[in-house]
Amino acid sequence: MHPPHGSEMSNPMMFDMTPGLNRERPQNFIRDSDENKRFDKYPKLKQLLELKNIIIKKRSTPARYINCDLRTFDLGSLGTKFDVILIDPPWKEYYDRKIHNLDLLNSMHIENYDLNGDINNDRDKF
């Protein structure tokens, strides 16, 4: 692919040749990627985006995790409710790869743990 010549360069209907010249795919170039300039032509959308960003900054919290042993750690001591409590035990597929042993999971008796008091939403309790 060769660069356009003469009058083709000034033709506003000519598509952008940059991706082809750089041997990159056009989908690798994101249009209006700068968030501050993206909605300059659309003031209502720009205002909506600004308001949304303000709300997100006020309400969002960074993701956190605790690597702990549920047999000994009291989640209630943290003084907060959780949206998600993710337990990643040694699943059978891990066992099949001979990385972990299922005896640990069976000996934990997860069904006996009362995590319901530490979950934020009643409908998500198990």
UniProtKB/TrEMBL annotation:
Q: What sections of the sequence does the record tag as coiled-coil? A: none
- Give a GO molecular function annotation for the protein: methyltransferase activity
For this UniProt record, give its keywords in alphabetical order, as a comma-separated list: Methyltransferase, Nucleus, Transferase
Is-annotated flag, keyword Transferase? yes
Q: Which InterPro entries match?
A: DNA_methylase_N6_adenine_CS, METTL14-like, MT-A70-like, SAM-dependent_MTases_sf
Q: Which family does it belong to?
A: Belongs to the MT-A70-like family.
Keyword Transferase (UniProt): yes
Q: Which GO terms describe its cellular component?
A: nucleus; RNA N6-methyladenosine methyltransferase complex
Q: Which domain of life is it from?
A: Eukaryota
- Give the protein name, as stated in the record: Methyltransferase
**What species does this protein belong to?**
Plasmodium cynomolgi (strain B)
Which compartments is it annotated to reside in? Nucleus
A biological process (GO) of this protein is:
methylation
